[in-house]
Every structure is written in C-alpha cells, then in structure tokens.
Prior knowledge:
ABC transporter transmembrane region fold, six-stranded mixed β-sheet
Amino acid sequence: MNTKDAIRKLVELLWCHYKDILFITFFLLISSGLSLCIPLISKQIMDEGFIGGNLKLLTKLVLLSFIIYVLNALVDVIKEKKRVDIVAKIRFYLAEQSFSHLLKLKVKNFEKTNSAEIMNNVNTDIEKISSIADNSVFFIITQIFSITGGIVGLLIIDFRLTVIVLAFIPLKYFIMKALAKKQRNLIDSYIIKNQQYAKWFGDTVGGLKEIRFFDMYKRKLSEFSESQNNIVYNQKQINMLMQWNITFDIMIFQLLTAFIYIIGANLVFNLELSVGSVFAFITFCTYVISPISAILNISYFLSGIIPSVIRFNKFMDLDEENDSGNLQSICLGDISYNDVTFSYDTERYVLNDINIVFKEGKKTALMGGNGSGKSTLIALLLRLYAPTKGRICLNGIDINEFSLYEYRNIISIVSQQIYLFDDTIYNNICLNKQIEYKLLISAIEDSELMEFVQEVSLNYIVGNNGEMLSGGQKQKIALARALVHDKKILIFDEATSNVDVTSEKYFYKLLNTRLKEKTVIIVTHRLDILSYVDEVVTLKDGKIAQNEYEQ
C-alpha cells in the first residue's frame, strides 16, 4: 500500500460518518461567520468608541462582542460533542474489525509474531488513525471559508498590507514541506523500533523463568535500556520537530505582525489608515495565516498517520482461514490421509507422501520421536494448515468441502499445551454453553477432577491460563471439557503428560468405556497405552515407519 492508497482509506473511513461531519461543518461555518464580525466590531470600538469618545456606542459594541463570543462557545460545545462521538465510533469500528480479523487469522501468521507485538501494533495504529477526526482536521474543512472572508476583510481595510500578508504564504509552504518529510521519516523509524521492542518484550515475558534461573537479569536489563533509549530518543526527535513547527509558525506570524505594525503606523501617521483599522487588519491576518498554516500542515499532520494506516491495513490483509466448504451435514466415517505432503516453507518437507486411515470408532496411537511430524499431522486434520499435496478425507469426502464451523464442531482436542481462560472452573469446562448438570458431573468424575472441585468449588477462578492450578489439574479440566462437549472425534496430544499414574490409568480405561464408540487419536510416547488401543501408527522423519510397537 502506498501513500495514495492510505489517504483513500482515510477518506473512506471518514465518509462513513459524512452526516455527522456535515453537521460539524455547518456549526463550524456559523462559528467562522461570527468570528469574522469580531475584527470589524473591534475597529469600531477603537475608532468610534475609545478615540471618538462615544461611550454609548462602545458599550453596545462590547456587549455585542460578548454575545458573539458566548454563541461561539456554545457552538463549540455542540460541535465538540459530535466530534468526540465520531472519534469513539472510529476507534470502536477499527478495534472491532481488527479483533474479528485476529480471531480468523491463519495460524502461520503467528509463527513470527507474538501476541504482545500484535496487540501493541494494532493499538498504536488505531490510536493514530482515529486522530484523523481530531479538531485540527475539522478545522481544515472550513478554512477556505475563513481564508476567503479574511482576505475580503484585509482588502476592505488596505490593499497594500494585503499584498504583504500574501507574500508570506510561500515561505510558510516550503518550511512545512521540509518538516513534513522529516516527520514522515521519524514516524517510520519509530514504528519499526516500537514493533521490535514489542516483539522483544513478549519474548522476554514468556521466558521469565529462564531469565531468573539462568541469571539473565543484567543482560535483559541492558537490552531493555538500549531498546527504550532508541525509542525515547526517536520520540524526542518527533516531539522537538512538532515544537519547531509551532515555533516557525509563531516566528512567521510575529515577523508579519512586525511588518504590519511598522507599515501600518506610517499609514496612520499619514492619515491614510485609522488605528482601529490596523488592529482589525492584524486580527484578519490570523484568519488568513492560521488557516493557511493549517492547510499547509495537513501533509505534516498526515505524515504522522499514514505509516499507521499502511501497517494496519497490512495486518487486515493477512490471510484468514479458508472456509470455502459448503457441506453442513457431516456423515462420520474413516479419516484417510491420501498421499499427503506438507511443508511450512519451500526448503523442507515435514510430512512426505503420508497414507493413513484412522478407522471410525477405533482407538489409534500416533507415535514417533520429536520432529517426526505428529503434531503437524494433527494440525492438518484440524484444518489449521492445508496439505501442500494430497488430501485428507472424512468418509471419502475432502474435509475442505465441509463448513469449517460444522467440521470443527465434531472434533475435541486435549493437548499438552492447554489454555484456560481467567474464569471459573465451570466456565472453562462448559465454555459458556448450557450443559446438563448430570453430564457435567459425569465428565468431572471421569476426568478425576471431582476431589479438587469438592475442595474449591466450580466457581473457583483459575487465573491467567490456569496459573492457580497445577499442570495435572489443568489437564483434567481440559479432559472434562472434551468429555462434556461429547464430540464424535477426540484427539489427545500428550494429554496425560502431567497427570499422576493413577489418573493416567483411569484415562486409559475411558477408552473402552465412555469413549468406546468414539474415533480417538492419541499422540503419545507412552508404551503402556498400547494395550488399550486398536492400532498404532509410527512416524519417522515425516514418513510412515515400520511399526516398532506391535502388540
């Protein structure tokens, strides 16, 4: 995505709120019209009130000015309320869109990016993009009106001074253009450094135990200091550039004001201009110079937003899971891998020409050493990835022809890497679904979780990813979750690695009782499972190996 496309995206985002923007613009026009009256009233106050000695007229004009200022303040409140609503709607829309997209992303998008990095990038970009509805943006919308009115006011007062004002515009343009280019480069650098830090931070938090046990504290603190110093230095440069922008703006206006005072004084001394006209002229100058500054600053302003728009849309363009399947009704049968080959990249095949049949209603142990391809085989079955070659079928039908939701709704998985939500045991088992109480209790008993539940209750909060539980307790909750949802196909990926021997043997017995009619695939290294399964499949280096574990 280039800058032109990013600007188009911003326009589309604002266009969704065009009615509210028109409402705000209407009130801004009213405010601008009222403000244009102030210099002319001030001119009369000075010339006819103070210098002319007309106290009655002065009083009326002062009261009129006060009324105009009050009306302007009320208009600003109405306008600001609507503008704040637009900002809130934009933030919510972007957050909702990004979160919905995040839930559907393909697993491969998380292989090189951790959750902390993703969260930081998305939140930063949403904050930047939503600033498109800041006050300064809506101020720009009505600046043509202000400039037109301001120039008319200047010409009414004096043509010669007007030429001086207009001569300052090119100077302001070239300064703003140079600052905008500099800011764009700094913002690009800041985004990259912040993204690198978020990735490092997520990686560091994930390895806190290793940092403590292997005395890596000083090293990580040094890395933190170096990373943060780079970000802080970059942020200081951006802030200073903003200050220089303000400073140049003030200097140009003060220089212009000085010229007007000097030349205006000569005109007053020569009786070609009144004192009130000079002060009114300076006020009208602000209606011309400030809007021009704002308009010229739009490129400077956008240079701080465009990088975030580009990165946010790159995130939104990441591939989502493919749910092209139309079949809603699923008839169970054998699961067959037909000449399945898979590679995460183009360099090495993880699986090579796999032909396996997991028979319906049978219990199959999937065995093999680390890196043999067992987890990849399961990931393909769950449609987290698609085979590079070949296909996987259920009852003779390619699994990609089934609706993804309906297909996954017939499979339960209990893995070694279990995730539990920071919620109650009850909700972590039922996953916020209405489960019959008898079925729930039965699942808790069969997962050997009853003793713990009686000790703490089903309303016990397990903490972030079950931090308040032991590894065995987490696996028992995951097993109860699988049992209570009663799916037709169950996958156990090292599901008993953290439980005690008694619980493990009880689990094995379930294979021939509660799970007797289910299709069960058990990924394991445990040889004692062999007496409880119907078949054994062994993988080695991504291929089917001769079975070393014949019973």
